[in-house]
Amino acid sequence: KGRTLLRKMDQLGIILDVTHLCDQSFWEAIDCFQGPLWASHNNCRALVPHQRQFSDEQIKVIIERGGVIGIAFDAWMLKPDWERGKSTPQSAGVSLQNVLDQVDHICQLAGNAHHVGIGSDLDGAFGTEQCPMDIDTIADLQKIPALLEERGYTKGEIKQIAADNWIAFLRKAWK
Questions:
Q1: At 108, phi and psi to the nearest 5?
Q2: Model's pTM, two decimal places?
Q3: Does an H or E element contain 86, and which?
Q4: pLDDT in tens for each of the 175 residues of the chain?
Q5: Residue 39's closest CA among 55, 12, 60, 16?
Q6: What is the dihedral of CA 136, 141, 146, 150, to 10 degrees?
Q7: 3 state DSSP class of 117
Q8: Whether 77 contacts 50, CB under 8 Å
């Protein structure tokens, strides 16, 4: 029934969010679904080895298909060996720099800044006990542009990462 659903989504132009797909489901969906896809909040397995993160091969497919990957801010997705209930952002050294490492990795794979954005996943499932230590409130996301600039990103690339990649993707998907 899943393949039938994917074909119908494809016909209707519905965006497929591949964020929570296991590897097998990801590859089966990619084979079946030809429409717009993105990962609203996911990170790179190359930096944090966990089956919930995407491999470089999966990221490259999303890039080739014109998708965007939103970087998640959940500490266990940013730092290897994070232990829920034991690790703290301070003890593990989880900061916005770890978020930017994820951004950098995707940009390197893509060869540009067109396929990455802020996904955050800061929707209330966890609080400051499990996000970068330099985030106290959602307003702290405003620190990201300056940090990207310090890493050498241009103002245009920063604007893309902050919002424009999502907007461009949606405009194309919803045309």
A1: -65, -40
A2: 0.95
A3: none
A4: 999 999 999 999 999 999 999 999 999 999 999 999 999 999 999 999 999 999 999 999 999 999 999 999 999 999 998 998 899 999 999 999 999 999 999 999 999 999 999 998 888 778 888 999 999 999 999 999 999 999 999 999 999 999 999 999 999 999 8
A5: 16
A6: 80
A7: strand
A8: yes
